[in-house]
Amino acid sequence: MTTEAQGRLPAAYLAAGSSSFRDFLAGAAPELLPGSRALPVGSSVEAPHGTTIVSLVYDGGVVMAGDRRATMGNIIANRDMEKVFAADEYSAVGIAGTAGVALELVKLFQVELEHYEKIESALLSLEGKANRLAQMIRGNLGMAMQGLSVVPLFAGYDLELGTGRMFSYDVTGGCYEERDHHSIGSGSLFARGSLKKLWRPGLDGDTAVSVAIEALYDAADDDSATGGPDTGRRIWPTVAVIDSGGVRFVDEDALAGAVDAIIAARQGNPGGAR
Questions:
Q1: What CATH number should be reported for the domain whose range is 45-265?
Q2: CB burial class (10 A; 0-12, 13-18, 19+) of residue 262?
Q3: pLDDT one-digit tens code per residue, 48-69
Q4: Cα separation values, 90 from 153, 155, 181, 240, 245, Å
Q5: Any idea what the Cα angle at residue 130 is, between residues 163 and 176, rounded to 5°?
């Protein structure tokens, strides 16, 4: 008779281990890890992909924003997908790449940070969080080689340094700290050009939010996979602001006002702000 049948927890739940939930899962149920369900060699899957995420630091924190469109080839698979999530109280993660795998990885990352906090009774440092996410991406390399790649953007408020910071990744799990601003996804080239044009040192929070929305607007203007603000359906970008008070998401009324201001400013000036 197994321990489960006797009403006891399996041995893996009773053994001493590290503060990493991912390490525990790898030993207790490795088939539940996103990267453990590799496809047969030579196969391919047509799956929805998330597109553009932008992030920028401002005087007091960091802003992260994402459009809401997911595409599958030349088809719009979803018009209102959420791509920016709170990782924990002081950090957020935005996803680009294969949507299903990315969402699964984000959920595992959230549990990883919560598990560490419960075991250690302390928050993991911001760099520690960034490195934990890099390990998860590295574990997905097999699926990435078969086309199911995930490339997130991670940002948070560093409690020790008192500033906002952000980190980008490649499909092999390489982790790189970015300065000032960054973007990922299919529209990142156009968003990055917009951020270079609009970002400046000493931005306040409200201006940083407007800059992020403007960058997504510019990306949607030239990249068909990036969804711009949809005033008819009232679908706005997801925008997270992270500062010493933690993560908060900008509400729809404030986003609608910011979008209306940007659209009005572009009347007769489609190139946008300078």
A1: 3.60.20.10
A2: middle
A3: 777 899 999 999 999 999 999 9
A4: 15, 9, 18, 11, 8
A5: 85
C-beta atoms surrounding 62 within 10 Å: 25
Contact 194, 221 (CB under 8 A): no
20 contacts: CB under 8 Å, gap ≥ 6 = 112, 115, 116, 132
Query: Residue 96 gets which letter from DSSP?
Result: -
Structure tokens at 70: 């997911």
Rounded (5°) CA angle 153-155-158: 155
Neighbours of 244 (CB within 10 A): 12
From CA 170, how far away is CA 159, in angstroms rounded? Answer: 26
Catalytic residue among 51, 71, 98, 238: 51
Whole-number Å distance between alpha carbons of 35 and 95: 16
Type of residue at 75: I
**How is residue 218 written in tokens?**
């510019």
Instruction: Determine whether 163 is an active site residue.
Output: no
pLDDT tens track for 110-154: 999 998 888 888 889 999 999 999 998 988 777 777 667 889 999
Q: Which residues of 148-162 are buried (b: 16+ CB within 10 A; e: fewer)?
A: bbbbbbbbbbbeeee
Say whether 183 sits in a helix, a strand or coil. strand
Calpha distance 219→191 (Å, rounded): 5
Q: What is the DSSP string of 210-241?
A: HHHHHHHHHHHHH-TTSPPPBTTTTB--EEEE
Nearest to 115, CA basis, from 221, 17, 29: 17
Pairing of strands 163-169, 175-178: antiparallel
Length of the chain: 274
Measure CA of the first residue to CA of the last residue in the chain; give whole Å.
Answer: 72
Average pLDDT over residues 21-29: 62
Strand partners, 175: 169
